């Protein structure tokens, strides 16, 4: 598989009145063609900011302070705004958690979809309209010919998110970034949207980056998972490997703090005690050290690099693998 | 003391309608039928989970049960006494026996009050200031905060800590029954487990009874003894939580449970997912007969004509569906 997106040592900060908030503190990851990659972590861990940096849509106080973002070999951080506009929404699309605030309430859904295409390529409006209808059909919106004439408020939450996905895909992007696309939806609707995203991936071979805090959602869609904590990727592995052999104590903690409904016995949940770190004053060592049950002296002094641990699996933790397994068994 | 065998709460045919705005020149008054005749018994010390999609009426049900809303019709027996028709004044002695924990820990605490004032506001006036403060400190320690936190304002706390303050406030009047309305859905995954474990410990320590409203079914299954599934203002299935999970009988419960994502890629690929088509109909204009029939893959003629009643099909397992109804559809 070819690398589509390559992010290296990315650092993003927000310069606020209270000081510099180091939201992303050196993140490396790749996305291959046709791959679905999940980003998991708690709110404030930097997963959304990483993607906003890739799209270059940080707000005024946010700035990329270091690192590189290569998309098909092109360095995005060096591009002018004009050139970036040709990529954003065309080559890379993004959908957000709340579909109501992402759609313009005063234009019909069809109008917005046509406008979006005309802006990015030389295409007749009638052709753009036809494509919009095809795309709405692909995402499973019933009666797309009629729906295209309606306004966003006439759609339900699930339908709006379908329309957002259709709009994001209508220009044929190579990468779709979905930031918590199902968090605002009910489980039954969430299942529908996840099915749509699976179909889309199969039909169009679009790479997907899925940001979520729900380990269940990631399991149903993604090939590979990156776990983020305190502005860093602490573990990266194939999905199956991550759930079966989690290496980082934070990943282990996350998996233990959600009840697995398939299990019959009621084991008591094991919460992760304490609070996530304050990124105004990021810790010098491992960000998870204050909450980690296996913390050692080195954890407080030095951030561990990503150690390889099996194929395609890397863990940023000082604790040697063997010892960790013993600790889990105990 | 004699063991009290009455259920703590028994609601029968409870309805709550909200009147809709009059359309100009329209003679017809329309109502939003948020809760349309539900029956539920909650035993002492039990946790009953109430699940369903947004808009199904679960929050309205919870609020009506503790008389934050006045019921339109029906009975609410609390400790054997019907509280559905009581005046505000007559309600007062009952108010302190029932409390509520809200979803949004940011909106449910007054930003201008100190934590000690928030927690002590509901305590009986006969306590002296010192006694109240002692009690506040005790409650804060019970919810995993320390006594220094009493002199701080809500904005100084994180979401999980605020939810703990909300729980301490609910406990301050020594209630018997607490309605937990989505108490963890605004919190991060690792914090959710902290709060759920704490709720279980408090239930054990204070002998509390919970009505746990949530849409996260795996968490509800974990904390509840029994689960009631709601759809469009009606309870469609009630059963012990393992039973609902392993052996759901109503087609809606089956679809709802199959939609829950499993945090394990191996299991997730094996799992059969029943994807429901379409959306929930409007509660202003509900379908005749069974409310779920518009999305149900098993819908029959009878479903459009009659409304299925909640019937016990196995011991402790109640379902409102013609498929499991022996009279209309013998198995």
How much beta of chain A, percentage-wise? 15-25%
Stretches with pLDDT under 50, minimum 5 residues of chain A: none
Strand neighbour order, sheet with most strands of chain B: 6-7-8-3-9-10-12-11
The largest inter-chain interface, given as chain pair and residues per side, is: A-B, 46 and 41 residues
The coarse silhouette of chain A is: globular
Largest beta-sheet characterization of chain A: 8 strands, mixed
- SS field, number of helical segments of chain A: 13
Structural class of chain A, please? alpha/beta
Oligomer: heterodimer
Query: Which term fits the overall shape of chain B?
Result: globular
- Low-pLDDT residue intervals, each spanning 5 or more residues of chain B: none
Number of DSSP-assigned strands of chain B? 12
- Percent of residues of chain A in helical segments? 25-40%
Q: Helix and strand string of chain A, N-terminal first?
A: EEEHEEHEHHHHHEHEHEEHHHEEH
Radius of gyration of chain A using CA atoms only: 21 Å
Would you list the SSEs of chain B in sequence order as H and E? Answer: EEEHEEHEHHHEHEHEEHHHHEE
Helix content of chain B: 25-40%
Largest sheet of chain B: 8 strands, mixed
- Give the spatial strand order of the biggest sheet of chain A: 6-7-8-3-9-10-12-11
Please give the count of helices of chain B: 11
Distance between the termini of chain A: 40 Å
Walk me through this protein's architecture:
The complex is a heterodimer of chains A (330) and B (331). Chain A is of the alpha/beta class and 330 residues long. Chain A has helices at 47-55, 81-87, 99-102, 109-120, 125-138, 144-147, 157-169, 187-204, 215-221, 239-244, 249-256, 297-301, 321-329; strands at residues 3-16, 19-32, 36-40, 62-71, 74-75, 92-95, 175-179, 207-212, 224-229, 232-238, 307-308, 314-315. In chain A, the strands form two sheets. In chain A, strands 6-7-8-3-9-10-12-11 form an eight-stranded mixed beta sheet, sandwiched between helices. In chain A, strands 2-1-4-5 form a four-stranded antiparallel beta sheet. Chain B is 30% helix and 21% strand. The model of chain B has no long low-confidence stretch (mean pLDDT 88). Chain B has helices at 58-65, 88-95, 115-120, 129-142, 159-171, 189-206, 217-223, 241-246, 251-258, 265-270, 301-305; strands at residues 9-19, 31-42, 47-51, 73-78, 81-82, 98-101, 177-181, 209-213, 226-231, 234-240, 311-314, 317-319. In chain B, the strands form two sheets. Chain B has an eight-stranded mixed beta sheet, sandwiched between helices. Chain B has a four-stranded antiparallel beta sheet with strand order 2-1-4-5. By secondary structure, chain B is of the alpha/beta class. Chain B has a domain at 115-173. Chain A binds chain B through residues 42-43, 142, 156, 158-159, 186-192, 194-195, 213-217, 219-220, 239-240, 243-244, 253-262, 264, 266, 268-273, 275-276, and chain B through 53-54, 158, 160, 188-194, 196-197, 215, 217-219, 221-222, 242, 245-246, 255-268, 273, 275-276, 278-279.
